TrEMBL record:
GO terms for biological process: monoatomic ion transmembrane transport. Pfam families: Innexin. It comes from Anisakis simplex. GO terms for molecular function: gap junction channel activity. This is Innexin. One of its GO terms (cellular component) is gap junction. It is found in: Cell junction, Gap junction; Cell membrane.
């Protein structure tokens, strides 16, 4: 614990080769990015991470089930003009979005 406190003191003490802008850059900016990323990351795991479109007939549990399924199983990008998923498996696989489940975890890891 003393090592941690000592490291914080060394890190936060002013050095003579830097000015106010340098300190703001490596202290405040890092802190702001960490807080913003933590807020987004916590919303993914503790809030409502994804709201999928559901028909009006879906109520309560059905709506919640659909949102959980969308988060786990990926979604598709379908242009507004089409309004339906392609019937062929290859075309459907090409339209699948697979990136959003891990985006928050990756950005939190690199902070």
């Amino acid at each position: 614990m003393d090592d941690l406190i000592q490291a914080i003191k060394i890190y936060s003490s002013p050095r003579f080769e830097e000015d106010f802008v340098d300190r703001l850059n490596f202290q405040a900016t890092t802190f702001i990015f960490f807080i913003a990323t933590s807020a987004i990351f916590s919303q993914t795991f503790f809030g409502k991470p994804l709201q999928c479109w559901t028909p009006n007939q879906f109520r309560g549990g059905w709506d919640e089930y659909t949102n959980n399924y969308c988060l786990i199983e990926n979604t598709y990008f379908v242009p507004y003009e089409n309004r339906s998923l392609p019937q062929e498996n290859k075309a459907r696989d090409d339209a699948e979005l697979q990136y959003y489940q891990v985006t928050d975890g990756i950005s939190e890891h690199f902070q």
